Amino acid sequence: xxxxxxxxxxxxxxxxxxxxxxxxxxxxxxxxxxxxxxxxxxxxxxxxxxxxxxxxxxxxxxxxxxxxxxxxxxxxxxxxxxxxxxxxxxxxxxxxxxxxxxxxxxxxxxxxxxxxxxxxxxxxxxxxxxxxxxxxxxxxxxxxxxxxxxxxxxxxxxxxxxxxxxxxxxxxxxxxxxxxxxxxxxxxxxxxxxxxxxxxxxxxxxxxxxxxxxxxxxxxxxxxxxxxxxxxxxxxxxxxxxxxxxxxxxxxxxxxxxxxxxxxxxxxxxxxxxxxxxxxxxxxxxxxxxxxxxxxxxxxxxxxxxxxxxxxxxxxxxxxxxxxxx
Length: 326
Description:
Blueprint: E1 6-8, E2 54-56, E3 77-81, H1 86-97, E4 101-106, H2 110-116, E5 124-128, E6 147-150, H3 168-182, E7 189-195, H4 206-209, H5 214-226, E8 232-237, E9 239-241, E10 263-267, E11 275-277, H6 278-288, E12 297-304, H7 313-324
Parallel strand pairs: 1-2, 3-4, 3-6, 4-5, 6-7, 7-8, 8-12, 9-11
Antiparallel strand pairs: 10-12
Helix pairs in contact: 1-6, 3-5
């Protein structure tokens, strides 16, 4: 897929606040129907007309430039699954801004051009696929992939997003299982976005959110990743704020805000309760790819009042490391 994107570094953009709610919400699913065809050098939209979108992404820190360790090497290839969802859009735009070679699996690949513009195929490839089916992904998509970020998800309660059998069982359990089963053993890291509360789905208030099984199936997905033998990191997000960015217009990212809640709280043991900016979750996933000691670890993440780490890898290392001693 060929294209160009203009992505403003999100550490330069403005931030504001959102109101905390009591119960957690969960990442929204972007569904992937079955197919095994790679999209060629460009995605064509509206009768041969190519769409180019200039996008901008915001983040917590307005002053922190990306650290040199965040810059991808030429050998790094990241596959993003769930890239048209709220967290996924930010992950994709941020990786593109870092000049990371990127692959994307989508049910409707034309959405990638609408969302992210046109890019050279060497840098950005979009494949059509569906993780819900064991045969829904062409194995060729994994050739050369070094890292995977999986940020698929669906709503906790029945909604339009359940249309087409996009239930928690199909997405958070079967979809994760099918994806992980297909990944090459040479993979350097898979980062899975999950949810706080997955170990407490029989306890209030989590049992309310789990009426239709979303927490149970997320936990099953987590366990499959842990037992896969692949190097992994699991990021359990609190209630998601700032978005969701599912309008298929990245200009809405300019309005993404975190207000005074730019600081990041990371814990382990499923003890955190609170909310987290999608901007923070996306950055945590990207940072975890290259921080060695996050391998084999599960983290919970919230946004709190204060200054955030932005894209500073050293600050993220300190945050992840501090959670190990708590």
